[in-house]
Amino acid sequence: MDGVFVVTIALEANAWARQQFGECALGDKRRTERAVKYAAAVVDHPDGSTPDQTEDAADCKAVYRLFDRERVTFRALAEPHWRATRAQAEGLCLILGDTMETDFGNHRKATGLGPTGHGSGYGFFLHSGLLVQAETNEIVGMAGQEIFHRRPRVKSENSYQRTQRRRESEVWGRVIDAIGSASAKARYLHVLDRGADNIEVFCHLRQQGCGWVVRVAQLTRIVEVGSGEQCSVRAALKAQSVLGTYALSLQARSDQPAREATLEVRAVRVTMLTPERMTSYLRSIGPQRIEQWIVEVREVDAPPGVKPLHWVLYTSEPILSLDDARRIVGYYESRWLIEEYHKCLKTGCRVEGRHYSTARRLEAVTGILAVVAVRLLQIKTVARANPDLPADQVAPRAWIRMLGQVRPKARIVTARDFFRELAKLGGFLGRKSDGEPGWITLWRGHEKLKLLLRGAAAERKRCG
Ligand SMILES: [Mn+2]
Q1: All domains of the chain, ordered by start, with CATH?
Q2: With a threshold of 0.85, does the pTM exceed it?
Q3: Residues surrounding ion ligand 1 at CB below 5 Å
């Protein structure tokens, strides 16, 4: 499986920006050019402010004007990337779905935002579907995204308004539909957290011909088991014999020592019942019987004082063996990548540090940052997905040469070597106990390396 994105990372900022944003339909070719130019500047300095990322005041104003145009929306900027991602998908792909909350702070008074968090935050929600290769966890890109706002709660709210406000969970279905069905060469498996444990979500997934792994939120939900009788999810699992057990080494955490956990696995095939209260969506698609499997992983004989591990997942995939179950649990564990994406967007691109005065400008700039954050995530994970690739397939040769010059003891042959040395330049110690470098040291190393390259280029110019 040759990396689709490996080539992408090796591209210089300008070429990458053109590839990602050159097709944006913004109503005027000059706007597209402006977006490409700005995106390249963001790649070079993702956590800077807009004035930092532009050459002068006029350039900065031009970017602000760009984000004020009606046609220049989050969707218009990011959609070509989503389309390209879906077109690149091949084989079994996971689509990791999750919502990120932003908080721009109450003091800034950007107009058009809504409450976030427990009401103290002020911003928007970004729902994303990150497409990764199932076996390697290689990041292909974003398959679809949506920004939505929470309506402020009003005291005199009637039940209709309350239901409207609570229908936020419909975003799962909208993004599933926007991503749509896989092409003939790919298969999609959506991997979703507890927020998606909702009959409508399963219906959307099935309508699109996608598979799924969804964390169970309600163990008390009534389902139908094989023989047609009805019972709770919990009771259905309890009635099953153990499919197998396996051991898992857990690293020490602040609140508990390292331990070897023994995990029991159970699985059962169930049918979801059509809810009594039909929503307009459910009425529109007609009665549904969603047949699927439930996998349970339960820690037994946990030492006193620790909370035993317990995961329960719904899946469209048949679970006939312990291996099947472990594969599905492994897919769920890939969700750390979407959490990591959110960090790339918040810390790496400082999306919440943008000082724009309206929600529409903030949304529009997020259309660029959301795609740049994919690139940051790819840089962070490439060494993990393809450690043995030749280094010159993940980075320009000039970078490898320069890194070799400033770290003369380094031997840079593979992608893993390159990223470890890059992280060391950024302060990563690389001791045995340090594991693989985190993206902050990678990013610092990358920043330093670029400065070195810029210095060397200036020197060459001067010496003619
Ligand atoms: Mn979530």
Answers
A1: 1-193+335-386 (no CATH), 212-324 (3.90.350.10), 389-462 (1.10.740.10)
A2: yes
A3: 98, 193
